[in-house]
Amino acid sequence: MSERKVLNKYYPPDFDPSKIPKLKLPKDRQYVVRLMAPFNMRCKTCGEYIYKGKKFNARKETVQNELYMGLPIFRFYIKCTRCLAEITFKTDPENTDYAMEHGATRNFQAEKLIEEEEKRIQQEREEEELNNPMKVLENRTKDSKMEMEVLENLQELKELNQRQAQVDYEGMISQYRELEKREREREKEEDERETKEMLDRALVKRLRDSDSDSEKEEESSSTKSMKSSSDKPTDILTTDKPPEVQGASAAGVKRAKTESWERSVGTLGGGGALGSLVVRKKPAVTVSKPSPVVTAAAPTSQRDSKASTADSANTSKPVATQNGSSSLSLLGAYSDSDSNDSE
């Protein structure tokens, strides 16, 4: 694949450069170039000021029959920005500058005038020294005398400055050391203040944590007291424990949980608060009678024994109390009364 931007061109073997026709262009032909105004100028037609650096599309041509040490001189044509009058200027290689030619005047430049005056004086002096050797000696003595005066004036100015300055180097060093010491003290104070602030923040945080812990403990104790106060005042009457159980509980034995129905109703134990409400049935006193017929007494005794066994079965079931025991005394009394009846 061929390149897009070709740098080398192909020349065939039978290429003859002498056959290429040459263009005959005029020597004073003009080119359009883009340039900036080389100096400040004023148009002669309308008086418009054109400042240095303003851009123009100018026409450039080579000046015929004008050379400076083999260098060609070029002329430029521009138009005024206001009246479109033509202004021309050309290069000046002798002075490394541009020379105004037509259509405008160059503005005053004091620096350029001074340089031109100095150059003129230097040329006149060289011409005099070239023809008069005594003038050369006079000029040298004048130059040496002027140089000595300049050196003396410079030395006087230096001494005057030293007298007025009176620089104290020791004082400057001590002042610098004092300033450095103050800077170190200030940095040390800042470090101490920062450490103190950090410690204060840590202490405040610890105090807040301890306050929160104490508040939690107070809340837990208040909740416990509220729970204990929520119990009924009459619960103490319904609780019945023997002294040995109470002593064991005081020693650290876990207390049995009381049911809600036991708090309101109580137990039927003999030693409790409601034990006095239970009335025991007293055994009845019976007199035995002899049976007239032995044969007839047998079936009745069998019926009585069956009835007594049924009653004893019904009454033999234990009654649950708070302490988990049955009222054996009550069952014993019932069984004695049944046996006496059967007899």
TrEMBL record:
So which residues are the signal peptide here?
none
List all Low complexity biased stretches. 324-337
Biased amino acid composition, Polar residues: 298-323
The record ties this protein, via Pfam families, to: Saf4_Yju2 (PF04502)
- InterPro entries this protein is in? Saf4/Yju2 (IPR007590), Yju2 (IPR043701)
Compartments annotated for it: namely: Nucleus
- For the keyword Zinc-finger, the answer is no
The record's GO CC annotations read: U2-type catalytic step 1 spliceosome
The name under which this protein is listed is Splicing factor YJU2
